[in-house]
Design brief:
- The protein has two domains: 60 residues, Zinc finger, CHC2-typedomain (DNA Primase, Chain A, Alpha-Beta Complex), CATH 3.90.580.10; 98 residues, no CATH class.
- The protein is 63% helix and 9% strand.
- The chain contains five helices and five strands, in the order E-E-E-E-E-H-H-H-H-H.
- The longest helix has 45 residues.
- The radius of gyration is 31 Å and the shape is rod-shaped.
- The relative contact order is 0.06.
- The structure holds zinc ion.
Length: 192
Amino acid sequence: MQLKKNGRRTYNCLCPFHSENTPSFTIYSQDDPQNDRFHCFGCGADGDQINLYAMLNHLENGQAIAHLAHRIGLKGKKITRKQQLEVSRRQKDRQLEKLFKDECNSLFRFFCDLRKHVKERAEFYGEEDSLLVYYRQKETYYDYLLDGLLEGLNGETQYDDLIEVYKISKEVRKEWNILLAEHVQTYLDSME
Ligand SMILES: [Zn+2]
């Protein structure tokens, strides 16, 4: 909408709700006694900011409030408790989604490293090596964890289960890193 200042407290423009050549749509500024309302002298459209937002976006007033609340980060005065919960639930969902995407990516990279390490070890020590057997078990477990996280991203797993998988994957990875460090140390010691 192209707004044109008309006097100190009002703005005029072509009405978005009916077809016209001369602006008859008026927006009253905060300084005007009619503050933050609009009125069209052509078609009679009338209301406040929220009504205007709702009408322009073809929404119910309640939906308009939720949209606006979301855009301004919950600072609106007219937001109900239920709408607040809905908005914060969506923010939490997005945070979790990011958490799981990051976790999937790093787990995937880690999984690739593990595969490489297992392959090298098999070539070096032979298939009967006891650490290799242990790594192979971990490999299967990582497959399972990665599946769990990917399923979660596709929305097929409950968030509670997903958080559990996420925690376990962190622990297993930590354990595996300790094991790997010990293994490297043993190898270095044998070189002396
Ligand atoms: Zn109008």
